[in-house]
Amino acid sequence: MPPAASLSVVALTGLALVPVALAAGATLECSNPSQLITKLDDLFSSTSAIGCSGSQLQKDNAGGYWGEQYAKNASIVVYPSTAKDVQDAVSAFVSSEKGGKTELAFGSGFHGMTGAAATDGYMIDLKYLNKTELVYKEAFDGSIPAETVITYEGGARWGDVLKTTNGTGYTVVGARDSTVGVGGFSTGGGIGFLAGAYGFSGDRLLAMDVVLMDGTLVTATKANKYADLFWAIQGGGGQFGIVTKFYQKAALEPKLSHFHLWVVANESETQAQENTATFFESNTDPFTLMYYGYGYLPADIQNPTRDLAGRTVLIGVQFGNPADDAKQPGFHEVFNNQTLLKGVKTLSDVDYDLPYANAFEVINQFFPYGLRRGFWGPQTTKVTSGLLQDTKTIVKDWLDSLLATGEKPLTSLWAVQYMYPGLNGNLPAKSEDTAWPHTVAGHQTLFSPGWALPKNDKQTLETNTKINNLIYDHQSKVGPFLADYPNYISPDSEGHRVWGDNVQRLIDIKEKYDPDCIIAQGRVFASAGCTKRGKANIFAKSGSGPKMKYKRRQ
């Protein structure tokens, strides 16, 4: 079986999803193994696995994608369970397939929206590499000051991580959905529930263990000889190597989480928009936030499949300040007695009090599997009632058009998350300090459509472009240029839209660490090697080269 669940003073290893037999060599599900597979079987640890086309291991990988249109049937899927296994998986592939047509990809949670974690060829599925530990006073060979850190391996999912940290007094800034993998999230910025209080996940990283495309394993920090690699992965994504372990500075764990969801009556939508704008301007607590959303929602939030229509939802969230909760304003003081619900009639509501580690339970319901999905959106420094209404109009038109085709766009939603100004002092000082420039934190918008029919892909993408252009135009009038959050990159976005003036440096680092462009799926920086292979789609100069192709799975 896969690495067993075991609790120690500092660690809980997550359960992998596919049973694997303990034996000499990896579990092998291939009827006619190639020389590459035979070699890997000899090299891999006994808790790893290999599956070929048609095997259950291969099918499990193909069925694990959150967005249905991104899934592919890899001909070989390997499941390494140690960093050395990852090294062997890379080295064996490069030595046997370099210059061939087989493409390599790797992934953990498979929530990404670029196709980077999908291939018809050779897939490295990291989900067996999933251990989390709380480590006190990690010094990283003296290159940075000792800190209490939480380490999580590259195949873990955030639900696994928080099971380990729950009740320890420490936690991480992680994703808001328990099934999201740590890899893409951590390398693409990392906006979580606690970002307003502690900063983005990527900015809290102190070190990363990375397998390069020549099979070597290195530890990258801000100060050692791999500082350029650290910089690139800290917001530049997974184009430079495979991270087998992240080291995130530990944060104090909130003792309690409070969520309240309200479905707004149609006649109160304008008031709800005005109240939302007021909250965004007036909130003073970094542990308190809210979401405004409009989507295909039920009238009764506790009966999610009945009486569905385009509706507005308000979500109030508060985490107990672990350092000074006595001075923190109470939840009902903030949301019920002050601004958000003033003059608003609601159709239904539901209230949750639960530990921080279980906060996912509230949000997971909005992001089910089994649909074609999008997850896109810019930031803005100022949310106005007019912006909310204009965006709602675009989303409503999209919903109405899909409903007319017989679609049921369940859980489709456009939302904006409140972000505390300056992220409570946890932003980089200069745009060049991190690959993703974000010296100013905007409120994060999100278009999360869910649909079933491939014929509606085009209209959905066009709707996303309309929303983006509306918000870009709005932001140009109210504040500075804000680079898009990398994990919400839109299919038609150019490099500057996300990485600003840092694109050329990212291209150079891509060439340094992956000169043969082995990592070539999804959004690919235009290094010499990737340009030669015809894989490049992120260029330093706007308008250069082809746009990213949105590949449809029928």
TrEMBL record:
MF terms (GO), sorted A to Z: FAD binding; oxidoreductase activity
FAD-binding PCMH-type domain mapped to chain residues: 70-253
Signal peptide per UniProt: 1-23
Record keywords: FAD, Flavoprotein, Oxidoreductase, Signal
PROSITE patterns noted in UniProt: FAD_PCMH
Keyword Lyase tagged: no
SUPFAM superfamilies xref list: FAD-binding/transporter-associated domain-like
Family matches, as Pfam families: BBE (PF08031), FAD_binding_4 (PF01565)
Similarity-based family: Belongs to the oxygen-dependent FAD-linked oxidoreductase family.
Name by which UniProt lists this protein: FAD-binding domain-containing protein
